[in-house]
Write a structure and sequence with these properties.
28 helices; 3 domains; about 625 residues; mainly alpha; about 65% helix
Length: about 625
C-alpha cells in the first residue's frame, strides 16, 4: 500500500468513524430512554426531552474537546506531561533522539517535528500528534531514551513518522474529541455520585441523587464500551501498517523488533503511569499503554508484532530475555557504544549541483512519504555536509529569521541591496544587516541541495515566535522575493514552503482535511500548474508544449486544453494550491505523476526542477525525499 492508497484508506476510516459515532450515540440515547421509561414511565414529552438532552450533552462534550485540541500536537504532548527538548541540547540521550528525528525528517521531506519527553514515564512508549506535518509533535518516554539503542529508537521513531506521513495523526486527534463526547455521561455520573456521597438534608434527596448517579454511571458505561470498541477497530490495522512502514523506511527489522522485545521483556513494559490520560491517547501510542486485550485492544498482540518482523521468534525466547533483563536491565547508550552505533554511518557525497538525471512518474509517486535506506543515506549526506556553524544557527531563536532571509538574498549586489531595503522596512535595519552579513559569511558556495533541508531544520525554532512576528516575517519574505520584479524558482519554492509551514502551524486544525474533489472539477488549475512546470523546465516553446501535453495526458486524458503559459510565470501557482490540495488522494497520485511527466519529458531533471517538484508535492501534502532516486 503506497502513500496515496493509505490516505484513501484513512479517509474511508474517517467516514467509518462518523458512522460508528452515530451508532454509539444511538446506543447511549436508547439506554437513557430506557432508564426514563423504568423510573418515570412512558411520557412522550419527557422521553423527547431526555433524547434531545443526551444528544446535546454528547455534542457539546465533543465540540469542547475538539476546540481544546485546536493547538494540535503540542496540546496533546503538554496534557501528557511532556517536556520540550531544546534544539541545542547537549544531553547525550536527547541529542541522539534529535539526530534520529532530524535524519528521518530530512529523508521524508517534512519539517522537523517538535520533540517532547515524558520524563516521569519509565515505560517504553512514544506517540506522534498533530493535524499535519507542520504542527507535528513526537513524544517519547524517558524509558525509551534510557533502554533503547540507536537502531531501536530509529525503528520506534520511523513507526511514529508513518503516522505523521500517512494522515493517521489527524484521525487520532479527532478521535480524542469525538470519544470525549461519548464519555460525557460517565463523567457527569461520576461527579453526581461524588456529590451524593457528601450527604444531603434529607434521605429522599440523597436517594434521588444516588439513583441519578447510578443511572448516569450505567449509561456512561455504555459510552465507555462503544468508545473502547471504536478505538480498537480504528487503531489495530493502522498499527500493523505503521510497523510495516517503519521497516520499509529503515530497510531493517532488527531495530523495531528489538524495541518490541524490550517492551515485552522489561518489567515496565509500555504501560504509562497516568491511566486516565493514557486511556484517552491509547490509540496513538507505539505500545499498549493501558493493558487492554481482546475486543478492546488498540494494538495487535506483542508476540504477533514481533513475529511479523522475525517469524522464527518464540515465546520462550521472550521469557529468557525477561529473566536476563530482570538482573541487568539494558542501557541504550551502552549498547550503542558496544556496537559502534554512536552516530550515523558514513554517508555518500552529495551529487554535483549541476547534475541532471531521468525520472519516471511511477517511481516518484512511489517515493512520496516512503523514504527507504537510500533516502536515509542521502539524509546523512545532507546532515554531514551542512557546516556546523549553520546547523548551530538553525537551532538559535535569534538567528533563525536572518538565516532564512539570507537564503533568499540574491547574488546580484543591486538586487540584494533592494532586498535589504525591503527587509529593513519591515523587520528593522539590524535584522536586515544580520541577514546580509550571514549571506556573505556563511552561505556563499553552499550546495544548492542543502538550502531547503537547512530551512527544514530551522523551522521548529521559527514557529516558536509569536504570531505577529511570524506575520511580519512572512511579509518580509514576500517582499524580498519580489524585490526585483521577478521570482526565481528557488525563491518561489522557499517562500511557498515557508508559507505552508507557518500558516499550518498557526492554525493547524483548519488545514486537517482529506480532499474529495476529482480532476475534472479543477481542470483549469491543473492546466495552469502543468503549463508553469513545462515552461520552467524547457526553454524551447515547442518542447515545453510537448511536456505540457505529456503531463495533461496523465491526469486529464479526455481534456483538450491548449498550452497557455501564464504571463506571471511561477507566481500563477498561488492561484491553484487551494483547489488542487482538495483533490482526493488517488487523484493526487495522478497529479504527482503528471507533474513528473512534464518535468522529465526531456529525460533530464535539474536541481531547480527537482526543488519545484518537491515544493509542489509539499503544497499538496505529499512529501518527497530531498534527493530523488535515479531511474
Amino acid at each position: 500500500m503506497n502513500f496515496f492508497e493509505h490516505q484513501a484508506q484513512a479517509r474511508r476510516t474517517s467516514t467509518r468513524l462518523v458512522l460508528l459515532f452515530g451508532v454509539a450515540v444511538l446506543g447511549i440515547v436508547l439506554a437513557v430512554d430506557l432508564a426514563v421509561l423504568i423510573f418515570a414511565g412512558a411520557h412522550p414529552g419527557l422521553l423527547s426531552l431526555a433524547t434531545l438532552g443526551t444528544i446535546g450533552v454528547i455534542a457539546l462534550g465533543s465540540l469542547y474537546r475538539i476546540s481544546s485540541l485546536r493547538g494540535g500536537g503540542e496540546s496533546v504532548a503538554l496534557q501528557m506531561g511532556g517536556t520540550a527538548v531544546p534544539e541545542d541540547t547537549q544531553d547525550l540521550n536527547l541529542r541522539r533522539l534529535r539526530n534520529v528525528v532530524e535524519e528521518i525528517a530530512i529523508a521524508s521531506g517534512v519539517p522537523v517535528p517538535k520533540l517532547y519527553v515524558l520524563e516521569h514515564e519509565a515505560a517504553i512508549n512514544a506517540f506522534a500528534a498533530g493535524y499535519s506535518p507542520s504542527d507535528a509533535v513526537v513524544a517519547v518516554t524517558r524509558g525509551a531514551l534510557d533502554r533503547l539503542n540507536r537502531d531501536e529508537l530509529q525503528g520506534v521513531i520511523a513507526h511514529e513518522f508513518s503516522h505523521i506521513l500517512n494522515g493517521d495523526m489527524r484521525l487520532n486527534i479527532r478521535l480524542i474529541g469525538v470519544l470525549f463526547g461519548i464519555l460525557m455521561l460517565a463523567i457527569i455520573g461520576r461527579k453526581i455520585l461524588e456529590g451524593g456521597r457528601g450527604g444531603g438534608r434529607s434521605s429522599k434527596g440523597v436517594g434521588a441523587v444516588l439513583v441519578a448517579a447510578l443511572v448516569a454511571m450505567l449509561v456512561g458505561y455504555v459510552g465507555l464500551f462503544f468508545g473502547r470498541m471504536i478505538k480498537a477497530s480504528v487503531s489495530r490495522s493502522r498499527e500493523r501498517l505503521a510497523d510495516a512502514s517503519a521497516v520499509q523506511f529503515t530497510r531493517q527489522t532488527s531495530g523495531l523488533a528489538g524495541a518490541l522485545k524490550k517492551i515485552g521483556g522489561l518489567h515496565e513494559g509500555a504501560k504509562l503511569n497516568d491511566r486516565a490520560d493514557a486511556e484517552e491517547v491509547s490509540h496513538m501510542l507505539f505500545g499498549d499503554g493501558v493493558g487492554f486485550s481482546g475486543w478492546f485492544a488498540t494494538h495487535p498482540p506483542l508476540l504477533e508484532r514481533i513475529r511479523a518482523l522475525e517469524p522464527s521468534f518464540r515465546a520462550d525466547q521472550l521469557e529468557g530475555l525477561t529473566r536476563r533483563w530482570a538482573i541487568e536491565p539494558p542501557q541504550g547508550l551502552d549498547e550503542d557504544r558496544a556496537m559502534g552505533l554512536a552516530g550515523p554511518a558514513q554517508a555518500p557525497p552529495l551529487p554535483r549541483s549541476d547534475s541532471q538525471h531521468a525520472l519516471t512518474p511511477p517511481m516518484v509517486a512511489a517515493q512520496v512519504a516512503h523514504p527507504g535506506a537510500d533516502d536515509y543515506r542521502r539524509a546523512d549526506s545532507i546532515v554531514a555536509s551542512l557546516p556546523d556553524a549553520l546547523r548551530a544557527l538553525a537551532t538559535q531563536r535569534d538567528a533563525v529569521v536572518p538565516l532564512l532571509l539570507a537564503l533568499l538574498l540574491d547574488e546580484d549586489a543591486r538586487i540584494a541591496a533592494r532586498q535589504h531595503y525591503e527587509i529593513a522596512a519591515r523587520l528593522g535595519p539590524e535584522l536586515a544587516d544580520a541577514a546580509r552579513d550571514l549571506r556573505a559569511r556563511s552561505l556563499v558556495g553552499l550546495h544548492p541541495m542543502l538550502r531547503l533541508p537547512l530551512a527544514s531544520l530551522a523551522f521548529p525554532v521559527l514557529r516558536l515566535r509569536p504570531r505577529p512576528q511570524l506575520d511580519a516575517f512572512m511579509d518580509a519574505v514576500q517582499a524580498a522575493v519580489n524585490a526585483d520584479g521577478r521570482v526565481s524558482l528557488f525563491e518561489y519554492c522557499l517562500a511557498r514552503l515557508l508559507t505552508v509551514q507557518v500558516t499550518e502551524s498557526l492554525d493547524p486544525s483548519r488545514h486537517a482535511r482529506f480532499g474529495r474533489r476529482k480532476p475534472q472539477a479543477v481542470a483549469a488549475e491543473l492546466a495552469t500548474l502543468l503549463a508553469v512546470v513545462a515552461q520552467s523546465g524547457h526553454a524551447d516553446a515547442t518542447l515545453a508544449q510537448r511536456a505540457y501535453l505529456a503531463g495533461l495526458q496523465r491526469i486529464l486524458p479526455q481534456e483538450h486544453r491548449p498550452y497557455a503559459p501564464p504571463v506571471d510565470g511561477v507566481l500563477a501557482l498561488d492561484r491553484v494550491w487551494e483547489a488542487l490540495d482538495a483533490l482526493d488522494p488517488l487523484a493526487k497520485q495522478s497529479l504527482v505523476e503528471a507533474v513528473t511527466a512534464a518535468i522529465s519529458h526531456d529525460n533530464r531533471v535539474a536541481v531547480a526542477e527537482a526543488e519545484l517538484l518537491r515544493t509542489i508535492c509539499a503544497a499538496l501534502h505529499c512529501p518527497l525525499p530531498p534527493m530523488l532516486a535515479k531511474a
